[in-house]
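Exercise 3.2. Students should predict the tertiary structure of the chain below and write it as structure tokens, then compare their answer with the key that follows.

Predict this chain's 3D structure.
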Amino acid sequence: MKRLQQALACLVLCVLLAGMVSVPAAALSDVLDNFWAKEDIERCISLKYFYPESNGSFGVGKEMSRAEFTTVLCRFFGWKPTSPARAVYEDVPESAWYAGAIETAYHQGAITSQDGGFRPDALITRSEAAAMLIRALGYGSIAGLIQDMSLPFQDVRSNNGYIVMAYGLGLMDGTSATTFSPEGHVSREQAAAIFMRLYDKLNGTAGRLGLATAAEGLPELSGYEAVGVAAFKLVYNGAPQLASLMEDEEAAAIRAAASSAGAKPLLYVSGGPYHLREDNAAELAEVLLQAVQAGSYSGLFLDISGLTTDAQRNELTAAAQLLREKLGQKLLYIGAEAPAWKGAAFGYDYAALGELADRLVLRISPQAETIGESTAAPLEPLERVYYALNRLRGAVDAGKLTLLLTSAGSEWNGKASVPVSGETLLSLMKEQGAENHYSSRYACAYLTRTRGAGVWYLNGQSIQERTRLARLFGGGHICLSDLNSALPEVLEAMP
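Answer key:
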């Protein structure tokens, strides 16, 4: 009998430790109606990230241990704790209620074992919580690259990159305008608020756009917000002019396909810095407006790349202002070179363009990087996407920001990036000796071949990673550079 009582007691204890006591959020004794975290607490309980205490309270004011925070982290990300647990840290017994969660978080990269110990019962600090969150999201490498990025907090001296990201993504606030209190602890209600912020960002709205270069080979366009019809490019012959890239009948067919699918057909016009001459803004706007009206487009997508001077910046802004006025209810999308973390950004007035445009579409130019004896030329590497979005945080409405992503592949010829069509890429994948790889740092796939240079490309996972990062900044709109050349898995992964 005594042994049975002990077994039952052990079972009850395990249930309590696992947080399986079900108490309606409304009945929580320590959560008042006007409590600042009431909604976050109720949502966390509803989603089963947190469970009430055995006494029917939530545990307001109770600071969380490292083991408790790790357990909630696993629940949030849907990581099923390892069972039976195996020893990862010398101070985490395999029989401990939290051992499976800690082992799982370790294998997911959310925690590390630098000194062999985990200190499960120690109260988690705000700095440690930031690091766990950012690692869990898979951004540890980015955090390592931005250690010297500035913060408004005077008390942050370690784990700077993790805190930069947690703060920049809006997951954690400072304890004052100038302090983060990295050694301060995290209470249960504070953790609930953090996880709900992350939840809302990850589940925010996202949209898909794309550019069409031909009527033949278009994918299914249902669910696309807009489709840019690449019918013209800018030229300059004493004055701004448009050069046709396709027959009127083909452009009309693309417009019809987009409209029938519920997408807005936009006239897509590309150009470079030499197409913006001083005092030509009015002429440029008029030429573009006439083309939009003549083709009965729903709006304009003007994409001018490579601007580097104040004069070019001012001309584009002036043209955008005139277009905004003359287009009326029609859409105006503007493409711009994405700002780099430490690079010059004076070629574009991002704030002004963000105000004028319905979408500000960011292009991230290819850039090679030497790693050992090889050259990496990833497309829209995740770290550069982060730099761009972080730099524009607060300057441009995040809901307007859109990432322009390369649809197919790119081969680095030693000097520049050479496009590789989706069809060609699929053919290369079938070559003898060809192998597909994935770089977690860049969130980009690449193909190695026995003969010939490697090819970098975005696969379905790459699209999802960039969409998620954009969502974390409050956006999530993705535009494919060429719908006709996109890989099937890329099309499937679009938001």
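Discussion points: The chain has two domains: 2-202, 207-493. Confidence is low (pLDDT under 50) at residues 1-25.
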